[in-house]
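FW: tagging you since you asked about this chain on Friday. Here's the raw sequence from the shared folder, copied in full. Didn't touch anything.
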Amino acid sequence: ATLSEIVERVCRLPISKQVIVVDDGSLDGTQQLIRDLADRLPIEPIFHSINQGKGAAIQTGFAAARGEIVIVQDADLEYEPEQIMQVIAPI
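HL: got it, structure written out here
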């Protein structure tokens, strides 16, 4: 329910970034939502054909990452995307 909001907020952050969205075999319409987001936002979607768990999704995202800093942002709004700026500031 919060995926679109999270992705849009991360994309708006005023930093150079690569946004990778990993779907871990969702069967609830999330894959189409991600495809729709990729049509209008600069994100790189990756789809697992079957559910492999959060650890596998993170490993897939890490393998695709090209930057010097990697941040994991879950889609549940547990962490505010804007906090990424504070996290990377000392780096």
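FW: The radius of gyration is 13 Å.
HL: agreed, and The longest strand covers residues 19-24.
FW: great, closing this out.
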